[in-house]
Design goal:
Elements: H1 18-31, H2 35-38, H3 46-49, H4 72-80, H5 101-109, H6 113-150, H7 156-159, H8 165-175, H9 180-194, H10 202-219, H11 226-237, H12 242-253, H13 255-260, H14 268-281, H15 284-287, H16 291-300, H17 320-327, H18 338-348, H19 354-369
Helix pairs in contact: 1-6, 9-10, 11-12, 17-18
């Protein structure tokens, strides 16, 4: 369970920011297991998403005769001591009034084994559900903090004066709505970017991607910058011309490498022209998909990050799980999921993520030994 708020890497201040901000929010909510809470395309009631607080079992089930002999607080403390299946208290009483000591001890001694076992099971189930409820409540509060911190202060009244997370997101959507055409264009771009290598031939995929990209450019929404478009295109193009795409992606994502090789990172239009030329004249060896990439796709399916996130806006080089898996350094005040961290470590062993390991390690070296 993440134990502190995420540091927002996006800011919601104008309509053009909405789609990127909303994708980041859904990505974070997915880590918290609360994606349904912020997914506005789903009509699932909030009451079915949020866990109700469990009702504490009534100790009078065990001690019906002690209602008048002990106050409710002391009665619960006695019941909390029943953990041994034989009905014998294994922990000394704590914070108990001396005048109630004899009554408590006598009540515990006369419990049967069946009573103690049943109560212990009931108590364990309650405590387990209570932990789940508190964990989810903590995650909901973390989402609220992230939303408040990533929204322009001018709109604080939308994020701090409303109880539910979903109500906050719905209200912000009404304030920052992308037009239907903008939303459809961005959705089309995301879909075709993720479809690379999934049954589409190179010519058909290239035609559809160019159509989706230039449609967004014509709308001039500010949703897609040159850098992000270049990265998205090259990651998808690795399914068709892997070696060229991989080497070009390294230069685009690492300005230092581009400077060292005397090649500047190219714009999306340059990449489109280069890809088109290679697609027409590339020899079969250049089109051949490396075995490691083919095996990975067959086993795990295509995804954009070693943490198995398939959100286009999710950046592997900024992923906290990737950084933790490579450097061994966990973000402060945040607990990462061990299962997902282990899966990320395994994925980083694949040759296709070698560039990412080199990039993160280079950044870490510069941070430790740079000026």
């Amino acid at each position: 369970m993440p134990s502190s708020k995420e540091t927002p890497n996006v800011t919601l201040a104008k309509p053009g920011d909405w789609l990127e901000w909303y994708d980041s929010l859904r990505d974070l909510a997915r880590e918290y297991d609360l994606e349904d809470l912020v997914d506005l395309e789903k009509e699932k009631p909030v009451a079915e998403i949020l866990l109700p607080r469990p009702e504490r079992p009534n100790p009078l089930i065990l001690f019906p005769d002690l209602l008048d002999a002990l106050p409710p607080t002391a009665l619960w403390k006695v019941a909390s001591r029943v953990r041994d299946v034989k009905g014998v208290a294994v922990e000394p009483p704590r914070y108990t009034l001396i005048r109630n000591q004899a009554v408590e001890d006598d009540a515990l001694v006369h419990l049967t084994s069946a009573q103690a076992t049943g109560w212990s099971t009931r108590l364990s189930m309650y405590e387990s559900r209570e932990r789940e409820w508190r964990s989810q409540k903590h995650n909901v509060l973390a989402l609220r903090r992230w939303i408040a911190d990533s929204t322009d202060p001018l709109f604080d009244y939308c994020t701090r004066d409303i109880e539910g997370v979903r109500e906050v997101v719905e209200r912000l959507q009404r304030l920052f709505p992308p037009s239907l055409e903008e939303h459809a264009a961005y959705k089309e771009y995301q879909q075709i970017t993720g479809k690379a290598g999934q049954g589409l031939g190179v010519d058909e995929w290239f035609r559809q991607w160019c159509h989706a990209y230039y449609r967004i450019r014509r709308l001039d929404t500010g949703q897609l910058g040159d850098y992000q478009a270049s990265v998205d295109f090259l990651k998808a193009a690795r399914r068709y011309i892997p070696i060229w795409s991989h080497n070009t992606l390294l230069r685009v994502m690492s300005p230092k490498a581009a400077q060292a090789s005397a090649l500047d990172p190219k714009t999306p239009s340059d990449l489109i022209r280069d890809f088109h030329r290679l697609n027409l004249h590339a020899p079969p060896s250049l089109r051949e998909v490396p075995p490691w990439l083919k095996e990975t796709e067959e086993q795990n399916g295509p995804y954009h990050c070693p943490c198995h996130s398939n959100v286009v806006s999710h950046k592997p080089e900024a992923c906290v799980y990737v950084k933790a898996a490579i450097t061994g350094l966990h973000p402060p005040k945040r607990r990462l999921k061990e299962k997902l961290l282990s899966k990320t470590r395994d994925a980083l062993e694949e040759p296709r993520w070698a560039w990412l390991v080199d990039e993160i390690e280079a950044v870490e070296i510069c941070r430790n030994y740079g000026p």
